[in-house]
Amino acid sequence: MLALAAAVVAAQVAAAPAPAEPDAAFEQALQLVAAGKRAEAADALEALASSRPDAAAAAAVAKAAELREALGQPHRALALYRRLIARYPDSRLVRRARVRARVLQRGLGGSPGDAAAYADYQRIIGGVPRLEQVRRARALVAAHPDAPAADDARMLLGSASRDLGWPDEAVRWYREVARRNPGTPRYYLARKGEADALAAYGRFDAARAVYRELAATGDRRYRLWAEKGVEELDRAQRRSRLAQLAWVVVALVALGLLVSARRQAGSWRGLARRLARPPVEVWYLAPVALVVVLASATSNGMIARAVRFVLIGALALTWLSGATLEAARRRAGRVSWKRAAVHAAGAAAAVVALCYLAMMHDRLLDMVVETWRHGPEP
User: In sequence order, what are the residues at sequence separation of 6 or more whose Cβ sits closer than 8 angstroms to the Cβ of residue 15?
Assistant: First the structure.
């Protein structure tokens, strides 16, 4: 009897699928995603879920649905989310599946044109470069202006325009979304986007007025948006005042150097002759600056622009300062330590101001602060 029971148990164990197999298949599908083969990965995950109709397949269904969305196949994604909700109601993934199913149902609308617009929108947000996103989103809005996905595209155009430095266009897209969706959550989201864009480009009074409107709705979520927005707005205004002070410092240093150089050269014509020939400081700094500019060009584009701005300004100040010191040396036979110290202090102040202006121009200051506090990303 014991031998028979042992044989039955052994047969059941042998017949059961190895627990490592689904995990291995799932990992293989993820490797296909990493290789850019998203369609093949989605097919593999759906096949895996069909071969394992139990709770272990829930993750495969959820991942397949995400991939179908990214591939611009919203109908298949919706079917997969509904499958996940129906078959695995106890899975922790069901909550997100319900949200995505509602979003997809709304986006697909009630006509083939609505579905086509939503599929286009999913393809637009699936890793397309920013400028190409703008081009495609504009085309989507022009082709399907009343489709539910068109407002998603308008919101995307608002954020992309802000990132690309087009504040007027960003505000225009956000206002259009607000006009088309009065009294809805999307209206307030668009108004927040408008206020953030206004604040980012120094239109503080207009931004503050929009934040006041959000705070006056009485909704706790919108009030928190407004409070955070006003806090960031106050910080942006402080930084703007510091930027104005930085411009004053650069202008005063440059003007002081110019006046001093004119005095040492004896005339404007003499100054022009001095400036026509680069001083030795420029010959030293120029190759170093060139190497730094070329190296920065291989990194983040905003960082590269900031580096170019600082180094061009530093070269101009160095040229002017070096010409002044050379003129003073020729006139008096030597340069006093006081004059050298004043030149060094003025140049240092101007370079610090240029660095601040460069970070403000491309909104790099928050990135620098975050890196300082938490270190570089691994």
Answer: none
Amino acid at the residue 337: W
Given phi > 0 = left and psi -120 to 50 = alpha, else beta, which region is 318? alpha
Q: Coil, strand or helix: which one is 146?
A: coil
Q: How far apart are CA 349 and CA 352, in angstroms?
A: 5
* pLDDT number for residue 110: 64
Enter the DSSP assignment of 299.
Answer: S
CATH for 21-108 (1.10.150.120, 1.10.10.10, 1.25.40.10, 3.30.1490.20):
1.25.40.10
What does each C-alpha distance from 178 to 141, 145, 175, 187, 277 come to in angstroms?
15, 14, 5, 4, 58
Token pair 């179908």 is found at 68
Calculate the alpha carbon distances from 63 to 46, 48, 128, 140 in Å. Answer: 9, 11, 20, 27
- What are the residue ranges spanned by the domains of the chain? 21-108, 114-217, 241-369
The structure tokens 């397309």 sit at: 128
pLDDT single digits (tens) 320-362:
887 777 777 777 667 777 877 887 888 888 888 888 888 876 6
Q: Please determine, looking at this structure, whether the domain spanning 114-217 carries the CATH number 1.25.40.10.
A: yes
